[in-house]
Amino acid sequence: MESIPQDHPAEPKVRIPLKIEETLAGIAIGVLGLITFANVVVRYLTNFSFAFTEEFSVFLMLFMALVGGSSVMGKQGHLNIRYLVDKLAPKARHWTLLGATALTAFTFLLLAIFGSRMAWDEYRFEVTSPGLGLPTWIYTVWLPLLALAIFGRAVGVLIRTWRNKN
User: Fold this and answer.
1) In a domain, 65, yes or no
2) Among 5-14, 94-103, 143-152, which is the least confidently predicted range?
């Protein structure tokens, strides 16, 4: 039986375990699945809908996407055009990966800054959600926190890429 070659090592050496993000994403998708399943069962058995759970579902999907993005960033799985990047000379590939990762880090740092401003405004102006009437900052505060997590993972990738001159 032939083994399939992998593009990246399965688990890079990181200071903060990637299992944190993977576990959080698993919990989020599990809760999302339970909410959706309960909504479908109740709708078909009683003709009643848990429409108010849509707020939680949207939040969980965004939470899962950002936590998953942090995990993928830590594994150097961020988006790049592999076909073109792999055709570059090793030195050009190295600098291209450094530049792309630096731009990604900068983007998520900006997202953390502007997301925290948005969460602060929602807290300050006491904005509530239309469905449940909950303060929206409860949902929004996770954007800057998880953007900072992705920024941190991107900085870790930058350091590892810089040290690995191959």
Assistant:
1) yes
2) 5-14
